[in-house]
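DM from R.C. (forwarded with permission)

"hey, sorry to bug you on a friday — could you get me a structure for this? deadline for the figure draft is monday and I only need the backbone to look sensible"
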Amino acid sequence: MEDLIKEAIHNPNAAWELAKTDKDPIRVVDTISELSMEEAIKLGHNFKRFPIGCDLTEILVGTCASDLEEIDFLGNCILADMIGASIHACAYAFSDMAESYGMKGVELMRKVRKITEVPIDLDHFGENGPMRFPEDITHCIGQCYMEGPPFKGCPRNRIHSRLLDKEKETLPERDEWIKLSTSVAINLTSAQGAESHAAPIKEAKKVAKLAREHKRGLEAIMFIGDGYDDLITAFETALEIGVDVFVLEGGPFNLAKDRLGAFARAVAMARILAPGKIVATNGAYEDECRAGLRAGLNAIITGFPRNHHGYMCGYSPGTARRGNFGLPRIIKIIKDEVPGGLTRAPIQKSELEALALAVKVAGEDNVYPESIGYTPVGDAHWACLPHTPLYRRVKIQKTVNDIKRMASEGLLGDKIAILGARFLSWVISKELVDYADEIIISDTDNWVENVTVDNLRSQLKVDIHGANGDDKKAYEYADTTIISSTIPSIVNRLSRDFKDAISFI
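My reply, with the result:
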C-alpha cells in the first residue's frame, strides 16, 4: 500500500488501483505523514476525481444564531436556498430562536423545510435532541479562534455547560428533527482528548445510530490535532461507527508543528479513507482553507453574521470573531483556488438539480452505498439528496428501469452505446447486461472512460469496451445510443448531434 500511495501522487491510474484495495488507516496516515506538503496536495487532488472521490466543491452555510430575529433568520435560509448552498442547522440556535418567538425548535425547523429545498445538515444534536447551552456559550465571541493555537480546552467549559434538563424536554420531537434533515453531524473530538469540547463518544454513537435508522447521511467532525495520533484515532473511530463524510477542523485545533502541511496531509488522508468520498472543513484559518482546497477539499462550512461558522473558516487569529459574514469570503477563496470544470466552483442550484436528476434516473436503490464493481455508485450526496424537496421537484422523462423494459422488449438491439461514462452509465450497463451483446462506453475524458470500462468489466458478464471518446463512432456502430448525462447543456448538445439518441431529461 505504501508504494501505491506514493505512486498515486503522480499517477491517477495508481490512485484508481489504490481505491480498489482495503485501506488500513494507520498505514495511510504513516505513509502520507512522510510526504511533503506539495506531494500531499497532488495526492489529495488526484483523489478528488471521478470515481474515487467527489469532484464537486460546495458551501454549507450556517443561517442561524441564537439572537437572530425570525425575519432575518428565514431570509438567510431563503438566500442560501437561492444560491444552492446546503443549510447547516445548528440545532441549539434553532431552539434558542424558537424559544424567544414562543415556538418549539422543531416548529422552526418545519418552517425552514417548507420555504427551502436544498439539503439540511443537522449539527449540535444530542441523544435527546438539540443540544442547549447557556448564553456565555451561545454568544461567545469566538475566543478560541480569535486567540489561535494551541487549544488547551474550551475556556468556557463548553460541553460541560450543557443544559441537559432543557434537552430532555425535547425528547418527543427528537426523531422529527432528523427526518427533516438530510444529514447529521457527530463530533468525535472527545475521542481525541477534547472532552471539554464535544459530547462523549458514547453519545455520538447513539446519534449516529438514530441517523442510520432514518437513512440519513452521517458526518464526523474531527480535529487535526497533532496531525498524526489524533487523526488515526479519529479515522478509526469514524470508520468503526460507519460515517460517510469526514469533516476536518483546523484553526486553534491544529496543533501540528507544520501547521499547513499537516492540514493538507489530513485532507489527502481523509480523501483516501472517507467512505462517502466527501471531505469538508468546519473550521480552518484562511491559509488552511487555501491549502486544503488545493489538496482536494469538497466543502467548507461557513455562515451568516452571528452564526459561529461565520468566523471559523477563512479568517485568521485576531480577526476570527462572532459577527463576521464568512459566506462571501469563502466564495472568493474557493474561486481563487479551485478551477472551474464540468461544474462551477462552488456549485450552485443547477448542479444540485442535475445531481438530483441523476439519482432519480438511477433509482435510490442503485446508488451509494450500493456498489458496482470496485466502488459505490456516487457519493454521500447520492444518498442525501432524495430526502430534499428539490429531489421531489425535478422531473425526468425516463428511468433506468424504463431502459431495461425497452431492452427486454427487443427495442434497443444488441449493440448499445452509452455517451458519458460517469456513475449513471454504470447503472445503465448493469441493467442491460442480460439484453445486450455489446456495450460501448464513450466519454471525452479518456481516463474516466477507461476507469469505467475497467470497473464494469470487473463485475458485468458482457462485452464492454470504450470508444476512445469518439461519440460519433460509438453512435454509428451501435443499434441504440443512450445519453447518460443529466446536465441540460450537455444533453441538448448531444441530442442535436445524435437525434434519435435516448435521453433521460
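R.C.: lifesaver. The mean pLDDT is 96.
me: no worries. The radius of gyration is 23 Å.
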